[in-house]
Design goal:
Beta-Lactamase; alpha+beta; 29 helices; single chain; 6 domains; rod-shaped; 42% helix; five-stranded antiparallel β-sheet; binds adenosine-5'-diphosphate; binds magnesium ion; 33 strands
Length: 943
């Protein structure tokens, strides 16, 4: 084709534009253009290769059209090496952009390898530089002729090259778009989230596989829907008006509910964007199913709630959270209770200021520093922390460091209050201490033995009893301590029997030998030691050395016997005394008459010697009677002036022994007691009898009080208290808290032989004797007792006035046997009355005899002259001598008195108690004795 005509060029260009227009595929366009090139330029080959890069080893012919005779590299399907010539072409093409180079020059031949291989005779080429790709090379070959390219051809070639550059740009662009579209489509399809493309009217215009899965619909079904068919929360209007306010290409995120084909509701998180597509507004929406996430969130929230509740309300554990610097961040209710701070007070304050006692603060601060460095919590353990009020709070504290992503680490303390346990421990310790002290100080031995009978523990009292050093008893066998080697087997068998048969514990008595070879009597009170399974693991024994007690018991028995004997002797004495009294009177009569007979008969007479024998025998009998009477009194009493307190003091030891150890003896002496005059042995007798009675009245344990006091009774007092006599008295009281007595017993109490005790236990004489003693000493006894209320015996002994003793001085012996005074003689025994009358008359006295006190009183009342002397028996049936004397004295105040009795001066009777200092004669007496005494009395001047 000749291109000298510009229309031809236009024609070619039009042709090319037409190809571009009708062909939709860019590859086809390029192929058609190259095909047209062969036509337009009558050449053999037109091509495009890529890349036009001289630095690469090869290039590829991408498009090619040839005449049938000259197929090119594409047709031959070869990759062409970048030879030096080709590289030079590339360089030339690239450096000459916009202007194609043509080669060979007219007349030159193509001699390079490629030219030869592909029969290239003439070549035209240019580099194409698309904006979106590396450079391409565009060229044409003539293979039969050395064609020379003229300017028009070159011009046309160049503008076609430029046009192809544009096409390549498009091609590349489309390729890139397609690829990217493919990529996004793939993404679109493979993402599990549902993606919807929505039109400006709210219609779903595209949806991915994820949407199909999510809604359970096919894509076709989805593409029939509007967005509010899916979204349950919003209508199309709402959605559109929402997006209306959102700028283009700005993402928005919100949550909503989508509905599946089965009407299931799915929670979704939606991310959407508004964008323009082909001039229309569209939306894409990515919906993520967050049902699971929500479920997980809900679960997490619930579980969190649960744990928070648990922590908050757990009663027994005080939970606190602290920052690693010690700042309080969490404080549960139990902490409020345990430490006294409310949550508000605690939060924000330092652990150190709240619950750590001042002295612990430096240590805890140091531990906290360590913890912050190492990340390991403060060691857990038992701590003594502090309450708000400053009191101690013993706790077991567990510590953990809690790490939550995105938060600072926290120290959590879980404190359990152990004050109760501590208290229990203290109580236990104290009680243990108490028992230890008890055991160590117990006055009795405590010994623990194991099942074998080996001593495993012995308290101080025990090894003291046994005379051992503390540890020497440990390991010994129980039976090693026995006093009698013959007993060892018996004790061992007893012990083994206890262990195997487990009988009820009983008292056990045995004799043991101490380390220093003394023998002791012990009482063993034993019981089983059991473990928590109630199995017997040993025996505990309480050991008492009862040697002394046994001895005391024996002694008491002896004393009791002695006392009983004394009482018996006393009674026999009374009997004998009673008989002797009468017998004595008879002897008196015999002797009297013998004396009278002597005066009547001559000593030379045979009868005289007989009377002498009678007199001797009677005198011997009188001696015997005197002995009998002495025996009846046991001994002539010897009154002394004494302090009753001293007398009691000296008795206490014996009395204690007498009453035994179950009865407590209380001794309450009065200060500065008045003296009394009494035979000390009588005090002993009184006390012994009263104490023994008190002991017998007490069953088991009791109390006995001995007391002394000073008492003065005046007339008025005595008037109100029958039995009391005016004057100063020393009182001796013996009071017990025993069984007491009823009225009837009280009435008979002092009667001889009155007893409520068994034969052999009581004689019924104790109180009778006391009564006698007291009367004898011008005192009196008062008893107060009620059944069950105990008994109090009060003995009143008259105060001794020192002047009394002076009267007792013996009168100087006078030998005045006769007199002429008038004597009133009172004697209930007629024989004695007659005989004594005779004796008196023989000595010159006038005698007024009276057989009874009544007779005497009659005589006194009737007698006109003076009666100088009253001589009377003491003991008479109607009235005693003293009372009679009072009566007689009423009439004859001046009358002298002489008492006579078979008893000694201090006779023990109810009636015949004489005032001290009165004149007294013990029967029987001789005429001379009588004469002497009578003179004494009559001559005595009145004091
Ligand atoms: P005995 O003691 O030998 O029985 P007593 O003359 O000493 O004789 O006592 C007589 C009785 O008086 C006793 O048997 C007893 O019944 C009673 N009796 C004596 N003293 C007390 C007393 N302190 N408490 C109770 N009863 C007593
Ligand atoms: Mg008695």
């Amino acid at each position: 084709m000749n291109f000298n005509d510009p229309n031809r060029i236009l024609f070619v260009m039009e042709e090319i534009e037409r190809i571009i227009k009708i062909q939709s595929d860019a590859d086809d366009v390029l192929d058609q253009i190259l095909k047209k090139m062969l036509e337009f330029f009558s050449c053999d080959r037109a091509w495009l290769f890529y890349p036009c890069n001289p630095d690469l080893p090869t290039f590829e012919v991408v498009y090619e059209r040839t005449t049938p005779l000259f197929p090119g590299a594409k047709a031959l399907n070869t990759t062409v090496p970048m030879t030096r010539d080709m590289a030079e072409y590339c360089n030339r093409a690239l450096s000459n952009s916009g202007c194609p180079e043509i080669d060979p020059r007219p007349g030159q031949k193509m001699s390079n390898d490629i030219a030869l291989k592909f029969n290239v005779k003439s070549l035209i080429f240019m580099a194409l530089n698309p904006q979106n790709d590396d450079a391409w090379m565009f060229g044409m070959h003539h293979c039969e002729i050395n064609h020379h390219w003229n300017n028009n051809e070159r011009y046309l070639f160049k503008i076609i090259g430029l046009r192809i550059t544009k096409l390549i740009e498009n091609l590349i662009f489309i390729k890139q778009i397609t690829e990217s579209e493919k990529k996004y489509r793939k993404l679109f399809e493979t993402v599990s989230d549902a993606i919807y493309l929505i039109s400006g009217k709210g219609k779903i215009i595209d949806a991915n596989q994820g949407a199909c899965v999510c809604l359970g619909r096919t894509k076709e079904e989805i593409l029939d829907l509007y967005i509010d068919d899916v979204d349950q929360n919003f209508s199309v209007e709402e959605i559109l008006s929402f997006w209306d306010k959102v700028p283009f290409n700005t993402s928005k995120k919100f949550e909503s509910i989508h509905k599946t084909k089965n009407n299931d509701l799915i929670s979704v998180e939606v991310i959407g964007q508004k964008f323009r597509f082909k001039n229309a507004t569209c939306y894409y929406v990515v919906a993520k199913d967050i049902t699971e996430r929500q479920k997980a969130e809900k679960f997490l929230k619930e579980s969190e709630e649960r744990f928070r509740n648990l922590m908050e309300n757990v009663d027994a554990v005080a939970v606190q959270g602290y920052g690693l610097d010690g700042t309080t961040q969490y404080w549960n209710k139990a902490s409020e209770r345990l430490y006294g701070y409310t949550r508000q007070e605690a939060i924000g304050r330092s652990l150190l200021d709240l619950i750590i006692p001042p002295e612990m603060r430096p240590v805890v601060a140091e531990e906290m520093r360590k913890m912050a460095g190492s990340g390991r919590p403060i060691p857990s353990g038992e701590l003594l922390l502090m309450h708000k009020d400053g009191s101690q709070v013993p706790v077991i504290s567990h510590h953990v460091i809690v790490e939550v992503p995105g938060r600072a680490r926290e120290l959590f303390c879980l404190d359990i209050d152990i004050s109760e346990r501590k208290q229990a421990e203290t109580t236990l310790r104290q009680s243990e201490e108490k028992f230890r002290t008890l055991v160590n100080t117990a006055p009795f031995g405590i010994q623990l033995t194991d099942l074998e009978g080996k001593i495993v523990y012995s308290n101080p009292a025990h090894h003291h009893i046994q005379g051992y050093e503390p540890d020497q008893l440990i390991g010994m066998y129980l039976w090693d301590l026995t006093a009698d080697d013959g007993h060892r087997t018996e004790i061992r068998e007893y012990y083994q029997n206890i262990i195997s048969k487990k009988p009820e514990p009983t008292l056990y008595f045995t004799r043991e030998k101490t380390r220093d070879d003394r023998e002791i009597d012990v009482q063993i009170n034993w019981d089983y030691i059991r473990n928590e399974k109630d199995e017997v693991t040993g025996i505990i024994s309480i050991i008492e050395d009862i040697s002394e007690r046994k001895q005391a018991d024996a002694e008491r028995e002896k004393l009791q016997k002695q006392l009983n004997q004394a009482q018996k002797m006393e009674a026999v004495g009374r009997l004998a005394g009673g008989v002797a009294h009468d017998f004595n009177n008879m002897l008196g009569v015999i002797l009297g008459y013998v004396e009278l007979a002597f005066e009547k008969i001559d000593p030379d007479q045979e009868l005289y010697a007989d009377f002498e024998e009678i007199q001797k025998a009677a005198e011997r009998s009188a001696d015997l009677t005197k002995q009998l009477l002495t025996f009846a009194r046991k001994q002539v009493i010897a009154p002394e002036v004494l302090d009753l307190n001293d007398a009691v003091d000296s008795m206490l030891k014996m009395l204690r022994r007498l009453i035994g150890e179950n009865i407590e003896l209380l001794w309450l002496p009065a200060d500065e007691l008045w003296p009394v005059k009494i035979d000390p042995s009588q005090i002993n007798q009184i006390l012994a009898n009263l104490c023994v009675n008190a002991r017998d009245a007490i069953a088991g344990v009791g109390k006995l009080t001995i007391e002394t006091q000073m008492k003065t009774f005046d007339q008025i007092y005595c008037a109100g208290h029958p039995g009391f006599i005016t004057g100063d008295y020393v009182m001796l009281a013996v009071t017990d808290n025993g069984c007491g007595m009823n009225k009837e017993m009280l009435n008979n109490l002092f009667e001889p032989f009155f007893t409520t005790k068994n034969v052999g236990e009581g004689t019924g004489l104790g109180l009778a004797i006391i009564y006698g003693i007291v009367k004898q000493n011008n005192g009196f006894v008062n008893v107060y007792s009620e059944p069950g209320q105990g008994t109090s015996f009060k003995i009143y002994l008259p105060r001794f006035h020192p002047s009394e003793d002076a009267q007792e001085e013996a009168l100087p012996e006078k030998s005045v046997p006769t007199g002429n005074e008038t004597v009133l003689l009172v004697e209930d025994e007629p024989a004695i009355l007659r005989m004594t009358k005779m004796m008196l008359e023989r000595k010159g006295y006038s005698v007024l005899p009276a057989a009874t006190p009544a007779d005497a009183i009659n005589i006194v009342n009737a007698y006109i002259g003076k009666i100088h002397l009253l001589m009377t028996d003491v003991i008479m049936p109607e009235m005693n001598g003293r009372d009679l004397a009072e009566k007689v004295k009423a009439v004859f105040p001046e009358i002298k008195l002489l008492f006579m009795s078979g008893y000694a001066a201090n006779v023990v009777t109810n009636q015949g108690v004489l005032d001290e200092g009165v004149a007294f004669m013990q029967k029987p007496f001789s005429t001379n004795e009588l004469a002497k005494k009578i003179r004494e009395v009559l001559d005595e001047s009145h004091a």
